[in-house]
Amino acid sequence: MITEPAAYAKHSPAGLTIDARLITFDDGEALRRRVLRPGNNAWRFPFSPSSDFFHMGAFIEHHLASVVSFLIEPSPDAFSHSGPNWRLRGMATEPGMQSHGIGGILLEEGVLEVSRRNGSIVWCYGRTTAGRFYRRHGFQPFGDVFDIPDAGLHSLLVRHIEPISFSGKYSRQARST
Known about the structure:
- There is one protein chain.
- By secondary structure, the chain is of the alpha+beta class.
- The protein is 19% helix and 34% strand.
- It has one domain: Aminopeptidase, CATH 3.40.630.
- The longest helix is centred in the middle third of the chain and has 15 residues, at 102-116.
């Protein structure tokens, strides 16, 4: 079930009005399949977290244009910081909507949500073809490039962030489904 629109919207560099908000896993599944594994209708995004997680979508005029998921998961290199490490997974933007700032707005909104949930690191295995995108958003590559079968060359990318501390009843700890 797609959640109600946010109370605010962002504008992309291309002048598009982007509504970034929390969604369910199933809301983004078809878009992920089309973008991340085109031609493989049987593929399902491997997502089975054992910790806190959330999914976000970027909408243009009520059309889902980009998706991303975040979950608490230690980074492979065990970066030591005050808050939990959050892994970014399954980022996908409609091919015709790429390079319009939509994915960047969604990524930044997701990182802000991680910060609200006391995260100090966001990391991912990003495709090397998307490396420039991630570097533009503050991610740094670590280690060697490696191949994921049927997905291509990837590298470990890490971004350090400052947690936003909330006290009392306003702390956001709820899970998304």
